[in-house]
């Protein structure tokens, strides 16, 4: 299973869906997360907490044994195509930059995507 930024933030900030997300993460045979999502999580948390959040992100991926997945040449092509098809201003899913990164990682890994919200449910990606 691939973890999207939205799911990671929800767990780390103990938002309303935390229990469901943790259950799915613990039950998954393996977890991965795209390197761009790690940057996005650190930026979002850092902004909310008003400090560098790299240590929090590192603990999160260690605690749940989440494998960081490098973002390579095929990923950018799939992410660009995802925006062309499902991007904000083009499709009801309204995927943004970070969403397209997670979409590409999940699509190339051929794994379901764990996320919060309705955006990915309106795409062709397998949901967790």
The global form is: globular
According to CATH, the homologous superfamily is 5'-nuclease
**What share of the residues lie within helices?**
40-55%
Strand coverage percent: 5-15%
Tally the structural domains.
Answer: 1
**Number of alpha- plus pi-helical segments:** 6
Cross-sheet strand order for the largest sheet = 1-4
CATH topology: Rossmann fold
Termini gap: 7 Å
Can you count the beta strands? 4
Largest sheet: 2 strands, parallel
Looking at the overall shape, the CATH architecture is 3-Layer(aba) Sandwich
Helices and strands, in order, run as: EHHEHHEHHE
Structural class: mainly alpha
CATH class: Alpha Beta
Mean pLDDT: 96
Radius of gyration over all CA atoms, rounded: 14 Å
Poorly predicted runs of 5 or more residues: none
Structure description:
The structure is a single chain. The mean pLDDT is 96. The chain has six helices and four strands; from the N terminus they run E-H-H-E-H-H-E-H-H-E. The N and C termini lie close together (7 Å). Strands 1-4 form a two-stranded parallel ribbon. The chain has a two-stranded parallel sheet with strand order 2-3. Helix 1 (5-12) packs across helix 2, helix 1 runs parallel beside helix 3 (35-49) and helix 5 (73-86) crosses helix 6. The chain has one domain (2-119): 5'-nuclease (Rossmann fold, 3-Layer(aba) Sandwich). Helix content is 55%, strand content 9%. It is mainly alpha-helical and 128 residues long.
List the helices and strands and how they pair.
Elements: E1 2-3, H1 5-12, H2 18-27, E2 31-34, H3 35-49, H4 54-63, E3 66-69, H5 73-86, H6 97-109, E4 113-114
Parallel strand pairs: 1-4, 2-3
């Amino acid at each position: 299973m691939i973890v999207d930024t939205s799911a990671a933030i929800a767990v780390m900030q103990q938002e309303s869906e935390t229990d469901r997300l943790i259950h799915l993460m613990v039950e998954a045979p393996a977890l991965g997360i795209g390197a761009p999502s790690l940057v996005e999580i650190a930026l979002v948390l850092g902004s909310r907490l008003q400090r560098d959040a790299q240590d929090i992100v590192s603990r999160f991926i260690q605690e749940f044994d989440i494998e960081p997945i490098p973002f390579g040449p095929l990923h950018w092509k799939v992410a660009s195509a995802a925006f062309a098809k499902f991007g904000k201003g083009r499709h009801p899913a309204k995927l943004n930059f970070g969403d397209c990164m997670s979409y590409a990682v999940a699509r190339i890994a051929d794994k379901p995507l764990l996320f919060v919200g309705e955006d990915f449910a309106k795409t062709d990606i397998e949901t967790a």
